[in-house]
Amino acid sequence: MIDAATLEQRLVLLEAEVTALKQQAKVNPTSGSWLDKLVGSISDDEGFEQVLEYGRAYRDHDRPSEQADD
Asked: How far apart are CA 18 and CA 22, in angstroms?
């Protein structure tokens, strides 16, 4: 079990971190939605096109054939 002094020390550090995060949030407020920041963020990655192709192939594999049975 953790002793009271260690617990108190950890609590003080935690409160200091929370205070620092609050100050940082005031200085650098987030603008826009997180989704707007994410969209397009990896499109210039060299593996991005390959990932898209794998996804396309996977989806196409599960589709039924368009050829009609006679």
From this structure: 6
